[in-house]
UniProtKB/TrEMBL annotation:
Signal sequence interval, chain numbering: 1-24
Similarity remark: Belongs to the YkuD family.
Gene3D superfamilies recorded: L,D-transpeptidase catalytic domain-like, PGBD-like superfamily/PGBD
Record keywords, A-Z: Cell shape, Cell wall biogenesis/degradation, Peptidoglycan synthesis, Signal, Transferase
Name of this chain's protein: L,D-TPase catalytic domain-containing protein
GO molecular function: carboxypeptidase activity; transferase activity
Entry keyword Cell wall biogenesis/degradation: yes
Record-annotated L,D-TPase catalytic domain positions: 383-560
GO terms classed as biological process: cell wall organization; peptidoglycan biosynthetic process; regulation of cell shape
Pathway of action: Cell wall biogenesis; peptidoglycan biosynthesis
Length: 618
């Protein structure tokens, strides 16, 4: 599918180069070398079909499977033929094609022989994995058109173009799928290619849009570091098979989009923010001193206008009132909550910086997060753990409902928490902490060089190979980082960096969920403080939900924690999926769109990737 997108971007150039005369010449040449007569006119082709009363023209519907014309034995067997595809809505939704209104009117009727030869030589299919699948698909149809009928578009073709026009509803660009003339339908006849080219263009548009909706438009791993999500593209064969089985083009395309309710909610917010951005009423609020309740400041009228633009403030916009109190303070609190800031009503630097993010940028941010949702398959049943790194929260979701939510601490920008999915398999109460080499070199080697007894007071043991050594026996000042051949391990205890419990999903990144003795960090609005692992605010409440069915509720886990000082492992009979994800825009339970600071700088790269992934049609 990747190379398909590159071929689509060259579509206009190809369309302009192909002339009707060249097509006619190609048809004549193919008739000479085709011993089966498959390039003759439709009457000859229909005559080859066995069975009484067989009548068919280029405008007729696809024949039933039992009436298919046998292909030469040297070619692969044909796939199941396309069933009749009905529009999903009443007639007003699809524009009827007529000789006077359709730009295709007046073109030569579709010629199956020309189309068969064209598919084998089409530049946009050459060298692409799509080629054989598309050829096989149309062979199963006896090379009848799907998207065109007679001298115009079929109902299916009209419906598909309408779906392409709705690509912006998903944060995608319609111009990435079809040339401008197809989308506007108001160009002259010279803007339209030959019928067989229209047919292929629409097939490729279907494949590209369907795959983008189902799997995402860009490779996740190309949009930032520490992202480990493999593209889940559907095969061309699968996409064509689903087209083969479909009864409605709109319903088929809707089936590719994410089923996660968060997707439809975010689509609604995209529509809303586009409307806000279109008003061109964005108000800039000058920065300056911090505003506190009771202050009088000349910026207050601008602040009220800015808050009103997103619906946070609904009071008077009297420019003479410069008092910062009452409804204005409450509106600032609501704005702060919706942007992951401390909701204290104090308008300081972070609040003003966030207020001055343009509405156009918010639109692009929502589009980027719709793309992120397309990277995942939605799990409607069972339980899973969902960590939003950008929001710094953890949720336990069961049968589509959030049954537990808590704050977490995630990796600093220098030590990004990686984005990936796995499954929790066990917990360890009173864990030891084997200190990662990077942390040992940066934090503990200098400590050992200053005072080896300091690591001893912290309960840290030093190993050389499998042998524990006394840290005072080493002259640490002579140990260089590249020759640091020691392992550091912290004993269980109150000062252990992992706290009282850790939840393991063994992975190559050495990332897991765990308790922490640094509870004060959970009160911060921004909680990117770790070296990559995820610290959980209420780890035993979380464990209760995961392990209760194993006979380990919160009380029993905490008793085990206090009764023993040794590590105790508890296995899960059924592993629980865990997703470490990154969403900077989402809709909460109160139907308020929530924006979060892009702590790892991933938004800008994703927005650029969506914008530049292919050259738009002109």
């Amino acid at each position: 599918m990747t190379s398909l997108r590159f071929y689509l971007s060259a579509c206009v150039a190809v369309l302009c180069l192909v002339s009707s005369a060249a097509i006619a010449e190609n048809s004549v040449q193919n008739q000479v070398v085709d011993p089966l007569g498959l390039h003759d006119n439709d009457a000859v082709l229909a005559a080859a079909v066995p069975g009484p009363g067989r009548q068919e023209t280029a405008d007729s519907a696809a024949p039933a499977a039992s009436q298919s014309v046998p292909e030469p034995a040297v070619e692969p067997s044909a796939k199941t033929r396309i069933k009749s595809i009905e529009p999903s809505v009443a007639a007003p939704e699809t524009t009827a094609t007529t000789e006077t209104s359709d730009p295709l009117a007046g073109r030569d009727a579709f010629d199956r022989g020309v189309f068969r030869s064209f598919l084998k030589k089409a530049p946009r299919l050459e060298g692409d994995e799509t080629k054989e699948a598309v050829i096989d698909f149309y062979r199963g149809r006896r090379h009848e058109s799907l998207w065109t009928k007679g001298k115009g578009l079929s109902v299916q073709g009209e419906a598909l173009i309408k779906q392409v026009r709705s690509a912006p509803d998903h944060g995608l660009k319609q111009e990435d799928y079809l040339p401008h003339a197809y989308l506007t339908r108001n160009g002259g006849l010279s803007d339209w290619p030959a019928q067989h080219e229209v047919e292929l263009d629409l097939t490729l548009a279907y494949l590209a849009l369907a795959d983008d909706l189902a799997s995402g438009a860009v490779d996740p791993m190309s949009t930032g570091s520490e992202i480990y999500l493999q593209p889940k593209h559907l095969s061309v064969e699968d996409l064509l098979e689903r087209l083969d089985e479909a009864k409605s083009i709109p319903a088929l395309m809707a089936s590719f989009a994410p089923k996660d309710p968060a997707y439809a909610k975010l689509q609604e917010k995209l529509k809303h923010y586009r409307q806000l951005a279109a008003r061109k009423s964005y108000t800039h609020v000058p920065s300056g001193k911090t505003l506190r309740k009771g202050d009088v400041d000349a910026r207050v009228p601008a602040l009220k206008r800015r808050l009103s633009e997103e619906g946070f403030y609904k009071g008077s916009l009297d420019d003479t009132d410069q008092h910062y109190d009452g409804d204005v303070v409450e509106a600032v609190k609501a704005f702060q909550r919706a942007n992951g800031l401390s909701a204290d009503g104090v308008a300081g630097r972070n609040t003003f910086t966030t207020l001055n993010i343009s509405l156009e940028q918010r639109v692009r941010q929502i589009e980027a997060n719709l793309e992120r949702l397309r990277w995942y398959d939605y799990q409607a049943t069972g339980s899973f753990v969902d960590v939003n790194i950008a929001d710094q929260t953890l949720k336990v979701v069961r049968n589509g409902l959030t049954i537990h939510q808590t704050r977490v601490v995630v990796g600093k920008p220098k030590y990004k928490t990686p984005i990936f999915s796995h499954a929790i398999s066990y917990a360890e109460v009173n864990p030891t902490w084997t200190i990662p080499r990077s942390i040992a070199l940066k934090t503990y080697l200098p400590m050992l060089q200053r005072d080896p007894t300091e690591v001893m007071r912290r309960g840290i043991r030093v190993f050389h190979g499998n042998r524990e050594i006394d840290p005072r026996s080493i002259i640490w000042s002579t140990v260089k980082p590249r020759f640091f051949n020691f392992t550091l391990q912290q004993r269980p205890g109150r000062n252990n960096a992992l706290g009282g419990v850790k939840y393991m999903f063994p992975n190559r990144h050495a990332i897991y969920l765990h308790d922490t003795p640094s509870k004060h960090l959970f009160s911060r609005s921004g909680r990117a403080f770790s070296h990559g692992c995820i610290r959980v605010e209420n780890p035993f409440d979380f464990g209760d939900l995961l392990f209760k069915d194993e006979g380990w509720d919160k009380d029993r886990l905490m008793k085990l924690r206090s009764k023993s000082s040794n590590p105790q492992r508890i296995n899960l009979s059924n592993k629980v999926p865990v997703h470490l994800r990154y969403f900077t825009a989402f809709v909460d339970a109160a139907d308020t769109v929530q924006f979060r600071f892009d702590i790892y700088g991933n938004d800008a790269r994703l927005i650029e990737a969506l914008e530049t992934r292919s050259a738009p049609f002109s």
